[in-house]
Give the backbone structure.
Amino acid sequence: MSVETTGVAQGIAQPAGGEVADYVALLKPRVMSLVVFSGITGLVIAPGALHPLLAGVAILCIALGAGASGALNMWFERDIDALLGRTRNRPLPAGRLAPESALQFGVALAVGSVALMGVAVNWIAAAVLAFTIGFYLLVYTMWLKRRTPQNIVIGGAAGALPPVVGWVAATGEITLEPLILFAIIFLWTPPHFWALALFRAGDYSRAGVPMLPVVAGPRATKRQMLLYTLALLPVALLPSMIGMAGVIYGVGAGLLGVTFVFSAVRVLGDKADRSAKRMFGFSILYLFGLLSLLIVDHYVGSFL
């Protein structure tokens, strides 16, 4: 059965509405948590001070924008989701929610988050947030995902922008520092998602999604993962090198980076999926750890 046929078949039995839990699922809460945390990091370590109420509004807008991206992604990819083992029970392919409900929900969140950010915080942050949502939906989801194995590489720009949104919300301008945060997450994204794609390659192949392991094979993918982790290692140290962060971050980032590279080396030498699964799990801890170190270093450094 083709992707298109499956999507039509799935759409026939879908109800007009859904439970609250189904709308929450559209937000991709686990993905949102990392997105929001990266946005918080950009906001917290930015120079100056934003009123706590406005900071809370900015974080809410980043969360709503991330949720909008998730909902619109699920609306467009419901045919693919029906064919993937890890996504076939999502609200749309499972028939618990109608596509038009997800579309309306996503559009409302997108418009609302951008408008609120502009009115309450500043319009530069709102513009970056709007660009982030639009890039994720139009460039990654609609254009790249089904056409090129570089979908994650180029599309990763959307996931790397939330700390820039947070920084601009606090300062009203884009400077070198948030661009370094962007570069860190941009380089982190391919090895993170390719680790997942390695042990989910069969699903992606059946769904017709040209992920790198499907198109180029596991060996080439593993080499690319190692190259990206090697490139990420010095970039992740830049905050300490330019005075954006101190010794606490520098030491922690170095240890995390070496471990990430070692994980990629193990994946390269492993013919099974075990190391790829471990690297995928560690990659999430790596980014959370890196962002946490930035926040800790920011506050501890202010007392030293």
Q: What stands out?
A: The mean pLDDT is 91. Residues 147 and 276 are 24 Å apart (CA to CA). The two ends are 63 Å apart (CA to CA). Residues 274-301 form the longest helix (28 residues).
